[in-house]
Specification:
With about 90 residues, the protein is an alpha+beta fold. The chain has one domain. About 15% of the residues lie in helices and about 30% in strands. The chain has helices at about 30-40, 85-90; strands at about 15, 20, 25-30, 45-50, 55-60, 60-65, 70-75. The protein has a 3-stranded antiparallel β-sheet, covered by helices on one side. Strands 1-7 form a two-stranded antiparallel ribbon. The longest helix has 10 residues, at about 30-40.
Length: about 90
């Protein structure tokens, strides 16, 4: 799978591409989508579209809604220090 992140104008990451067109014009899944595909044992991804563009991507057992460009809106957790673990603590 491909790995690509594009920031918004203000520098924040709000959307992550789930499928992308390569320079060779092939359509490829993102690394995270490919991991989900393999874990779920889904042989083929189904990309649901309408006249405005991409609507969702289906894997075995669930559907991932996307924007018209095949991007997933990231839903960040609330700002709560008690739900985070520092990398230093993990390494210790």
């Amino acid at each position: 799978g491909l790995f690509s992140i594009k920031t918004e104008r203000d520098g924040l990451i709000r959307r992550v591409p789930m499928i992308m067109r390569t320079q060779g014009n092939m359509i490829m899944p993102s690394l995270s989508l490919e991991i989900l595909r393999v874990i779920t044992g889904t042989p083929t991804l189904l990309v649901r579209t309408d006249k405005t563009g991409i609507r969702a991507i289906r894997l075995k057992g669930f559907e991932i809604p996307t924007d018209k460009n095949g991007q997933l809106w990231v839903h960040y957790a609330r700002q709560d220090p008690s739900i985070y673990v520092s990398a230093a603590d993990v390494l210790d």
